[in-house]
Amino acid sequence: MKKRVKLIPVYLLVFSLFAPCTTQASTNITHSTYTATPQKISISPRRGDVIEWRYKTVNGVLYKRKYNKTTHKWIGKWVKA
User: Fold this and answer.
1) Which spans in 1-81 are helix H?
2) What whole-number distance in Å separates Cα of residue 53 and Cα of residue 62?
3) How far apart are CA 77 and CA 49, in angstroms?
4) What is the Cβ-side half-sphere exposure of residue 16, based on CA atoms within 13 angstroms?
5) Per-domain residue ranges for the chain?
6) Which of 38, 61, 62, 74 could form a disulfide with 81 if both were Cys (CB 3.0 to 4.6 A apart)?
7) Distance CA 74, CA 56 (A)
């Protein structure tokens, strides 16, 4: 019996926390008269840079270097492959 008496406040707390909210706001909601005009906007995703390895042979040694095909610029330095 004592266990039930101790659990009553716990039950009340749990039920009060999960009870549905029944209060209503008494403020008047007014709608603005602004209306958005539709515009033709085309959004295209930005494509990433196209990067590839370029190779060359100097005195029988193979070298490689990254090349950005989008900006037509070299990336980094020549390294042995």
Assistant:
1) 2-17
2) 12
3) 18
4) 6
5) 50-81
6) 62
7) 14
